[in-house]
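OP here, attaching both records as promised.
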Amino acid sequence: SYTEGLPNVMLEAMASGTIVLASKVGSIPDVITDGINGFLLRNNDPKTIAEKIVEIIKKENLREISTNAISYIKKYFSLNPIQRRYNVIIHTLRN
């Protein structure tokens, strides 16, 4: 998508360890660090996409990138971190 802020399908893919290739739109670059927990495209033209796919296929550390994606989701998007953030907000508002 050219306009979606933070696609749930991307978060679900990361949580399952699927390698993500995404556009630099919305909040995606805040979540995906290129080559660390997924991959970002410079632009969406077909040639760039094809080149990036070939580059990814040649990577030897895809298992590590997959593990990094899972770890990122567990750290920032699982229930416990979200619950802690809400608790801080509620506590701050009460005081």
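Record two, same layout:
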Amino acid sequence: MVFTVRFILLLVFCTCVSAEERFNRLGVDDGLPNATIYSVQQDKSGYLWLGSTNSGLLRFDGYRFDEFAVLTAAELQQNQTPDVGAVLIDKHDNIWAGTWGLGLSRLDAGTQTLHRYTEAHGLAGNQIQALMLDAQHRLWVGTTSGLSRINADDSIDNVGSGTEQTALADQRIWSLAQTDDGTVWIGTSAGLHSWREDRGLGPVIELVNDADSLSRKNEIRALAVWQNKLWVGSRQGLFRYEPEEQQFIAQPLAQAEPLVNVLFADNSEHQLLIGSYNGLHRLIPASVDMVDVKQQLSHVNVRSIMRDRSGVLWLGSRESGLYRNVVSSEAFSDIGSISPGLSEQEPFSVTAILKRQDTVWLGSTDALYRIQLSDGQFTRQALNTRVNAIAADKSGQVYIATDTGLYRFTDGTTEKIDMPFDLTNVSNRNVRDLYIDATDTLYLGMWGEGVIAWQPTEHRVQHWLAELSQTSVGNAVQQVFVGTDRQLWVATRYSGLFQIDLPSGKIQQYSTAANSAITLQHNNVQCVSEQAGILAICSRDGLILYNRITTEQKLLGRENGLPSEIVLGVLQQKQQLWVMTAKGLAHRLSEQQRFSNYNSRDGMVSTELNTNSVYADDNQILFGSMGGLVVVEPELLKANVYIPGPTLSAVVIDHQEQQLKPHGQPWGVIKLSPENHTVNFEFSALDYQDPQRNQFHYKLEGINSEWVLAGARNSAFYANLPVGSYPLLLKASNNHGVFSEPRVVATLQILPHWWQQSWVQYSAIAIA
């Protein structure tokens, strides 16, 4: 049975106070057949396996949920699909599924066969609650009526049964764990037991001495080994167990005594994760003590936790569906991180940004905002015009460029400045950009009026490119920038890029002309910047990097990983390149060849960035977007560098789905009889950071001469193919554009009609 994911993104947690991890939810509307997921595991191929209520064992490839039988055909005739509460994948990639009432099943990776273990085979019970593989690769099975161990030869030993000299204090087993010294720890309804190879089962250690058995205070619901310590989850909260003292030490969490369901040692992130009836807690080392740093998803009853190999954190819940974190979301926050009060106001488009000392200035389509970082207090001043740029001189004097002129902020108010326009006799005072150099000279990029340089203290102006509006109607300066050697760079809307040598006044133009020293793909240049001799030029056809020393020029576009070739802004900082595009943000370290892309699915408040609206300091980068302020902490940014595994996850012939391969084995030869006319291949990258952004290139050799981009679908459809044998090649990318090498995932063989077979044709020729 297959259940297809239709919608992936549903933000279930975020905060406007600071950058927090966000989670997406997958539910019934997204193809999940049941909203209760008790276990999540990942096999060697990359598939996720889920234990669910009423839907049994499910496999998830990022796009669809497939149900796999854990009962034999004869059992299925007598029973409905069982509840699977525990899933474990061993070193051989065998999948173990513990059911509630129907025993234990093993899907063998090598033989593709199903093996069953029940009370009739010697198992302590049929209601499976916990599974654990020990250091000797023996499987420990905790049930509601005892503890069993399945050995390598498939023999079963029962531990601590009522018939043994040393018995478990209670036969209901909630949890299992093994410490490095080989001790197996057993969590029961009556307390904690230990088991060692040399001395067997130890006596019970109670969490609460002499507690009423009906109170369930000694129920050891979860166990985990983290930082060489045994951690215990109970109905009273979280504890650390000290074996030498046989003492439980309480670990207070953000919520008083949460009822703990599951513990997960998240070693890759150096934290202990605690799933409770009321959400997810995180414990991290802080000096000597442990500190609960976050509690999230307070409405979710978390029952399972797993981090996959690409870094995605998965949470299974009771009656709330399946959750996965947005990996880079902690790096992104919004305006609430600097002003909680402003975040409660109506959202606005941020068109210009300046950060100076303890103040952040934001421009919008009709107002100027000033935020005090010390307390988050803000003031709003209506300007009734779009703010295009904000800059400050060395004394801290702030200037604001708008559609209707230039303003200066003085003593809490803005005053309009007319001097540079009066001195140049300019009538159109639409200032599109503003730059202030080290001499406190203001460079004003004008709509149709070129560039004005104004020295306020000397009442002196210079005017260049005044004829822009005469060359093309609507021509405008889009950005001005003073680089090294006192070179003024001017990006224009229709006339390309200008370089003005300030000492001499010499002007050089770069355009699409064949004789241009810097070749532009388009004369619409959105922005320009320079760092370490590298000139970055933004256009509607990609980003141009021009080395002023070697004159080497590179054009970066979608093939280099940019989400769009319409570049709206660029920031070169600390050997990193940040590119603002029409489809989000791209980031690249200097030593990397490809960009990693980020948008609203990664935690940005909006994908739609505003042209040249960016400001950076040593700790943060602020981007202006149509949906508000995007705050980025680069140190927390996590690019997905995991190389995906291109996989043929399903095959549909004439609208009939073929038998699935549960462990990702190659499909081999797929045969179509003469009566078959269509085949549909479904792909997966088995990378779950954001499957909707994974890409697939495929080629059916002998049919496709070039690679075909699958586009918005993760599939390829063919109909009425000629007789022959055709290898299917597949390449896949993750959400940040990292591609795999091509892989042959199957061979399609189109069988001939009887009269098309060679022996028939040769016979016909012979007869003729």
